[in-house]
Design a protein that fits this description.
This protein is an alpha/beta fold.
């Protein structure tokens, strides 16, 4: 259970600057009876409540949150709202057919725009800007991936969403050392994640939902009368929804469906106009290189550079602790990357560091599910691409729960169940092996100028 004295503003720059009172809402202190009981007041749970109430305002909806709305990934992410889906279109086409892959991308692109439209409808200043994303090739080894990203869109008829740039054209959009080319993707916006999740919570409350904070769900029961169980009482409902993402790894019955993987972030002080001019990063398009170990950049509305990435180790038993949000070697690596990518910023100060767990399914395929036998719905497994995906998940769950057949209810993630992660200690050994191997693959690629061939055990284990 959360502590009333905890300072939630310290968990990320986004929560610190969301402009909202972070004092926890009252906890659930007696058992309740509702139509819908939702675990988790992050994007997924809140979007599900929003679209359910939009379609049926008479529903009695309760949302149970262990900490406060937006405490998890929804309030700590890298600010990307992107049409990028964790599972590639080639993999979707192989498993579900070409038309399903096309429909999935269209739905994701629509979700990006729906987030912006929602903010406009409800007068929420989430610092929305749809400037696209730029995937850069730093070195010869990353150039093939640029071509592959472009091919993956053009082959499925989305050539109007992508442009390939050579070094000169890339330098006109941002000047980063060792960059040889890039590919620009249209369907990405940058946002203030904290303002979105906290504003969404207020909107959902205004529609009649009740959010109980510092109320930890310890178990759930499905069936004709499903229940979310807490140590304060029970939320009995006609339908329950599980939207805890990485935190569901500790929930009996579904825990091995997701694995918590930590993503960490560092943030610079606001740059001067001369510093921005030297970098040439004039719009707020997001930036990522083509490394296996992942790095992602965004530009805040007040002129800071956010640099995030993987690197923090997996913890035995999928354990999640506040202390894991900070990992000195990884945060140092991220700050060194800022200086290496932008030498003119060698003396820049870093004002914030934070992190948190995201949820990985075993096959890297998200799930939007509703079981009519157990009356249990769930959305999970976004693999770090959760902002737009969660919006699509919320709309899809609302359709499924209300018995509506729409263009969303036949998408590949609907009622998908991933293979469970291996039990410990095999999970720990395997994940740590892949984490180390990816780092070595990136180092070798940078040294030799040759891209990984995809044949290593680590690459095959993590293929999407």
């Amino acid at each position: 259970m959360g502590e009333a004295t905890r300072d939630y503003s310290t968990y990320s720059y986004w929560l610190e600057t969301c402009g909202d009172d972070l004092t926890p809402r009252p906890a659930m202190d007696v058992s309740i009876d509702v139509d819908v009981a939702i675990l988790g007041a992050g994007y997924s749970g809140l979007w599900t409540a929003y679209y359910l109430l939009q379609q049926n305002p008479s529903l009695k909806v309760a949302i149970l949150e262990r900490e406060i709305a937006g405490f998890g990934a929804s309030g700590r992410n890298g600010a990307w709202c992107t049409s990028g889906f964790p599972t590639s279109m080639d993999t979707l086409a192989k498993g579900w057919g070409r038309s399903a892959a096309i429909d999935m991308h269209r739905a994701m692109a629509g979700a990006v725009d729906e987030v912006g439209s929602f903010a406009a409808r409800h007068a929420l200043d989430i610092q929305w800007e749809k400037s696209g994303s730029l995937f850069i090739a730093r070195g010869e080894a990353q150039l093939p991936e640029i071509g592959e990203i472009a091919r993956s869109l053009t082959d499925y008829g989305f050539e109007d969403e992508v442009e390939v740039y050579d070094k000169a054209a890339t330098d006109e959009r941002i000047r980063i050392t060792e960059t040889l080319g890039s590919v620009w993707l249209k369907q990405t916006a940058v946002i203030h994640p904290g303002r979105l999740v906290r504003g969404l919570a207020r909107v959902v409350e205004s529609m009649g939902a009740t959010i109980y904070e510092q109320t930890a769900v310890t178990d759930f029961t499905g069936g004709a009368y499903p229940v979310l169980h807490t140590d304060r009482g029970h939320a009995r409902a006609r339908m329950v929804v599980l939207c805890g993402e990485a935190y569901m790894s500790g929930l009996k019955g579904v825990g091995r469906q997701v694995m918590p993987v930590y993503s960490l972030i560092t943030l610079t002080e606001p740059l001067t106009s001369d510093q921005w001019a030297a970098i040439g990063w004039y719009s707020r398009h997001t930036v990522e290189s083509c490394k296996y170990t992942i790095d992602y950049l965004s530009k805040t509305a007040d002129g800071r550079i956010l640099f995030g990435g993987r690197g923090a180790p997996y913890h035995f038993g999928s354990k999640i602790e506040d202390s894991y949000d900070l990992h000195g070697p990884t945060h140092t690596m991220l700050q060194d990357n800022v200086r290496a990518w932008f030498p003119g910023l060698k003396d820049v100060r870093f004002t914030h560091t934070w992190g948190g767990p995201l949820g990985w399914p075993r096959d890297f395929m998200p799930t939007f599910s509703f079981d009519v036998r157990t009356n249990v719905a769930s959305a999970r497994g976004y693999t770090g691409n959760g902002v737009a995906t969660a919006n699509l998940a919320g709309r899809t769950l609302a359709d499924l729960m209300l018995g509506r057949q729409t263009e969303r209810t036949t998408l590949p993630p609907v009622n998908h169940r991933s293979r469970s992660w291996e039990p410990e200690p095999f999970r720990f050994l395997g994940v740590r092996y892949v984490q180390r191997s990816f780092g070595k693959l990136d180092e070798k690629a940078a040294r030799t100028g040759k891209a990984p061939d995809g044949k290593s055990l680590a690459e095959r284990l993590a293929k999407r």
